[in-house]
Design brief:
The chain is an all-alpha fold and 126 residues long. The protein has a domain at 45-126. It contains 4 helices and no strands. The chain has helices spanning 7-26, 39-58, 64-81, 93-123. Helix 2 packs across helix 3 (64-81) and helix 2 (39-58) packs parallel to helix 4 (93-123). The protein is elongated and about 55 Å long. The mean pLDDT is 92.
Length: 126
């Protein structure tokens, strides 16, 4: 039985979020004014923070540097693909830097969350 606090569940959630992130990042959009300046940087930061937490919890034995590296490549890949004229999106290195910051924050946040999950798993039957 798959428990929602076990690594396979976190891996599944990470793959789903990564797939949705790539799909949304590559869908052509019509230019609209943002609700406030730099909202896209906040979105990058938030999504990659969540991806890093899910990846770290989903792959608890993987070194943090490996998780950072793979997610950094994902963010860079998205920015490279956005340069394709057919996609009609714009690439920005600052978006990638926001991704990197989100990954770092997520890896730090995953530490206390992992400790809490170990405590919870130890108290659950089975």
């Amino acid at each position: 039985m798959l428990r929602l606090i076990d690594p396979p569940a976190f891996r599944l959630a990470m793959y789903f979020l990564a797939t949705a992130t790539v799909a949304i990042a590559l869908i052509p959009t019509t230019p609209t004014p943002p609700p406030f300046p730099h909202i896209d940087k906040i979105q990058h930061l938030a999504i990659f923070t969540m991806l890093a937490v899910l990846a770290r919890l989903g792959f608890p034995d993987a070194p943090a540097r490996l998780v950072f590296e793979r997610l950094a490549f994902l963010g860079a890949g998205i920015e490279v693909l956005q340069t394709i004229p057919l996609i009609e999106r714009s690439s920005d290195v600052i978006d990638w830097l926001a991704d990197l910051a989100g990954i770092a924050i997520g890896l730090l946040l995953a530490l206390p969350i992992a400790r809490l999950l170990r405590l919870v798993r130890g108290r659950l039957p089975g």
